[in-house]
Amino acid sequence: MTGKTPKKVTGWRQVGLLSSIPFILALAPIIGFVIGQQLDRHFRTRPWLGIILLILGFVAGVRETIKIVKLSQQED
Questions:
Q1: Are 57 and 74 in contact (CB under 8 A)?
Q2: Short-list 31, 32, 17, CA closest to 66
Q3: Cα gap 38→74, rounded to integer Å
Q4: What are the pLDDT tens digits along the chain (76 aa)?
Q5: Would you list the domain boundaries of the chain?
Q6: On the CB side of 1, how many CA atoms lie within 13 Å of its CA?
């Protein structure tokens, strides 16, 4: 990395970081819901664990998105 200019590295890194946001926001709640459905079948608590883990997945996705946005702003 000693031969590269910092602007090129940070620019491409920002693109990589910011392009991962839609995947995080979409996949975190879906994964939480699927795991919740499996646990609901096992514990016979339908639909509560699915709903709770869906909400927790959404919260985790939002928190990770906030971290990514803050990280990308620090590199400006």
A1: no
A2: 17
A3: 40
A4: 565 554 444 788 889 989 999 999 999 999 999 999 999 999 999 999 999 999 999 999 999 999 999 888 875 5
A5: 19-70
A6: 5
Tell me, what's the pLDDT at 7?
Answer: 46
Q: What is the pTM of this model?
A: 0.81
Q: Any idea which residue has 């609901």 for tokens?
A: 40
3-state secondary structure 3-63: CCCHHHHHHHHHHHHHHCHHHHHHHHHHHHHHHHHHHHHHHCCCCHHHHHHHHHHHHHHHH
Residue type, 70: K
Tokens of 3: 């031969």
- Do 75 and 14 contact (CB within 8 A), yes or no? yes
Q: CA–CA distance from 46 to each of 27, 36, 56 (Å)?
A: 21, 9, 17
